[in-house]
Amino acid sequence: MTEINRSAPRAGARDLPRPSGRALALAYLAACLLPLALAAGRHVAPAHPWEAAAAALGLVALSGMAVQFFTSGRFETVSGRLGIDKVMAFHKIAAWGLLLALLLHPVFYVIPTWTESRALGIERLVAYHTSPHYRSGIVALAALVLLVPTAFLRDRLPWRYELWRATHLLLGLTAVGAGLHHALTVGRFSAGGALAGLWWGVAGAIVLVMAVLYGWRWARLHTHPWQLRSVTRLADRTWELDIQPGESTPHMDYKAGQFVWMTEGRGRFPLLDHPFSIADSPARPGLSLIVKEAGDFTNRAGQLAPGTPIGIDGPHGSFTLEHRDADAILLIAGGAGIGPIMGLLRDLVARRDRRPVRLAYAVGQPGNLACLEEIEAAKDVIDLEVMLLSEADAPGFTGEVGRLDPARLDRLLGDLARDRTLALICGPGPMITGVSDALIGLGMPLDMVEYERFDYRGALASRRDRRRIYRFLGLFAVLAAAIALAVPILS
After folding, report:
1. What pLDDT digit, counting tens, does each position of 228-259 carry?
2. What is the C-alpha separation between 436 and 412, in angstroms, rounded?
3. Which listed site, 63, 125, 140, 161, has its alpha carbon 20 to 30 Å from 370?
4. How far apart are CA 64 and CA 32, in angstroms?
């Protein structure tokens, strides 16, 4: 697509109020600690402090498992302001914390026996894992033991993406369902009263979430269909899909840089959809998606026939220019990350933005570069300077050979004020780590460096990632402290 002169942006783009990160953190703490508060109000037989700690771990972990269904990135109320990158990072780290808590849950129960007799302690621990009375708890633990590592190793497993998603969902439902059954049938605090009512409410909430994700959204995919208008080859194994709303489908209000979940064909179903950034400006009707062949569904993108029914769920994400105070814009794309970067660039062109815009576009081979004519034409409309990079050289390639190192970034920024320039980066995890850290090293504030990964290999390694991890760990430290304070009350 090489069109540059687009109409003015449509008014009315969706901008619903969304809670801040601090408000979401408080809500998370409240949800996880509510079972502890209700348990503290129940009168049960006295227990050893280690057993009270075990019960507290189980209560908090079960609630946290339920919350994971809301932090999966598909609910704008949660991910709208934080962004999918931060939400998914928290989702993954929290999963490891939940797994640790549930592994310690039976161990803490046997510590009093272990201190008196190691043989009896081992016998009691074996009984917890083999007795039919505790079977649902073991099922929950086994499901979580399978779920968390397979999620972490997703890119290394020889599974189709759709199969992995289905397995992930089933394991998650098994873990929380069996955990709820375990709490209601053998839990000393959950056998009745308000806490039992809470667990039934949690079960109902998860059923509602599943109904929304795979019932209501499935219905919308079919009652509000889209249609593939055309498929255009942009570069080696890179395609642009022009998707237009059907007659019964309203135009989508979105912001440049957001993404959608897309599925195709007559059997459109949410579990089979894939996330793609919108490579377009809201000024143009319909949606444009830039898809690079990388396995599974994307390898068939160039073979899709015009007229194919398309299901679209979105928009999602916060990788946008809205509500950001900046005097200049730095756009950086790595490989398939050109999708949202082109969306942002096209919108800047459509709005004839007067701010300086600098674009760095890095690929492995020159033949992977896409949209070069359009990028060149954009220079006639906005203040744009471009740096093209390839890790390999080729005849006719006039860009730079190598990686986007600090020296090249410094040269691209030129005399732009570092503290007033907003950087938006999209690409593979290792590239984002290196480039974001380099920009911060060049004087750009952490809050002016935004990124979105299209994969998570090498993730959670940048300076911005580490700051997020420290904040997440601080949140979990508050949970641990609350459990410790609850032990004297529960014992």
Report:
1. 999 999 998 899 999 999 988 998 899 999 99
2. 14
3. 161
4. 6
